[in-house]
Specification:
The chain has 10 helices and 10 strands. By secondary structure, it is of the alpha/beta class. The chain has 2 domains: 133 residues, Nucleotidyltransferase, domain 5 (2-Layer Sandwich), CATH 3.30.420.40; 166 residues, 2-Layer Sandwich (Nucleotidyltransferase, domain 5), CATH 3.30.420.40. The chain binds 5'-O-[(R)-(carboxyoxy)(hydroxy)phosphoryl]adenosine and zinc ion (ZN).
Length: 332
């Protein structure tokens, strides 16, 4: 089955064509830069940008795949979670295309999309594993007992890991989006220079990042302005190490509790180079298999949405054409 996926839940307008849920024929991603001067996503602007870009991006995805609309077997889009005005653009487009072409429509959960990015990049992977799902809006550990069967083991009590990256990048004047900027800046910094807190040190599988964010803010306030420039990379590296430490520790705890032997990284923060490096070292020591998608499939993209749709339609059939956008949709 050839699926056309659309992803418009936040600030990426993306369209992709995926064959049999596993082969990417095209995956066009437009990252909206209109938000950079505000230091974060402005919901109304996001919706307006999607409206402008959705058709050109869709056309590009079809032409890269060398296909026409009548060769598409299923039209899919993210229905939530996300910004309502942004979600409605992709959702309405996919429904209209399905309706006029008399083809199935599939409404996809964005969080499940992030998990399926692993299946897209490693089709042969074990389908029983623990995933650390870390994005701009979510941080959770999920036990996957076969594709489509999820149990949440733990989640953040306050900020998401990606949100903490974005807020600290703003504090350090590193620009937007913050995660990749901190990742780059930290490469030349000393991760042991500042001792930032690791929250919830016990056995529970939940996370907390608001205290860490405040600790960085207090440290920044203490520095004379001219010193901020010279300490920026040490601050970025020490902050990143604190986040990565807690993500790795809780992930290994989740593996111990579930007895799983495979761990997958999902979501935008899974692109973080230090998280990949550190978790790989720990997994190697404990004979656990670590998988993660290439960076362009970690951050928001439509190929992961098409991959879920292929699976979902095969398992449960198409979605109803009156499916609505659900901004606070959970994983299940
Ligand atoms: O999954 P995603 O693209 O969108 C959401 O569903 O939220 O994740 C975006 C988040 C942002 O907070 C961004 O700063 C973070 O992922 N991110 C990173 C990196 N690349 C993206 N965080 C740390 N290191 C990175 N290299
Ligand atoms: Zn996402």
């Amino acid at each position: 089955m050839i699926t056309l996926g659309l992803e418009t839940s936040c600030d990426e307008t993306s369209a992709a064509v995926v064959s049999d849920g596993k082969t990417i024929l095209s995956n066009v991603i437009y990252s909206q830069m209109v938000h950079s001067r505000f230091g974060g996503v402005v919901p109304e602007l996001a919706g307006r940008e999607h409206i402008k870009k959705i058709i050109p991006i869709l056309d590009e995805a079809l032409s890269e795949a060398d296909l026409t609309l009548d060769q598409i077997d299923c039209f899919a889009a993210t229905f939530g979670p996300g910004l309502v005005g942004a979600l409605l653009v992709g959702l309405s487009m996919a429904k209209s295309l399905a309706y006029f072409n008399n083809k199935p429509f599939c409404a996809v959960n964005h969080l499940e999309g992030h998990i399926f990015a692993n299946r897209l990049s490693k089709p042969d992977m074990d389908d029983r594993f623990v995933t650390l799902l870390v994005s701009g809006g979510h941080t959770m550990l999920v036990d996957v007992d076969g594709w489509g069967h999820y149990e949440i083991l733990g989640k953040t009590l306050d900020d998401a890991a990606g949100e903490a990256f974005d807020k600290v990048a703003k504090l350090l004047d590193l620009g937007y989006p913050g995660g990749p900027a901190i990742d780059r800046e930290a490469r030349t910094g000393d991760p042991d220079r500042f001792k930032f807190p690791r929250a919830l040190p016990g056995d529970r599988l939940d996370f907390s990042y608001s205290g860490l964010k405040t600790a960085v803010a207090l440290q920044v306030q203490k520095l004379p302005p001219d010193q901020l420039l010279s300490d920026k990379s040490d601050l970025a590296a020490s902050f990143q190490e604190a986040v990565v430490d807690s993500l790795c520790r809780k992930t290994m705890l989740a593996l111990k509790k579930t007895g799983r032997k495979t761990v997958a990284l999902s979501g935008g923060v899974a692109a973080n180079s230090r998280l990949r490096e550190k978790l790989q070292l720990i997994c190697d020591r404990q004979s656990v298999r670590l998988v993660y998608p290439p960076s362009e499939l970690c951050t928001d993209n439509a190929a992961m949405i098409a991959a879920v749709a292929d699976f979902q339609v095969a398992q449960n059939g198409p979605s109803d054409l009156n499916a609505n956008a659900i901004p606070y949709q959970k994983l299940f």
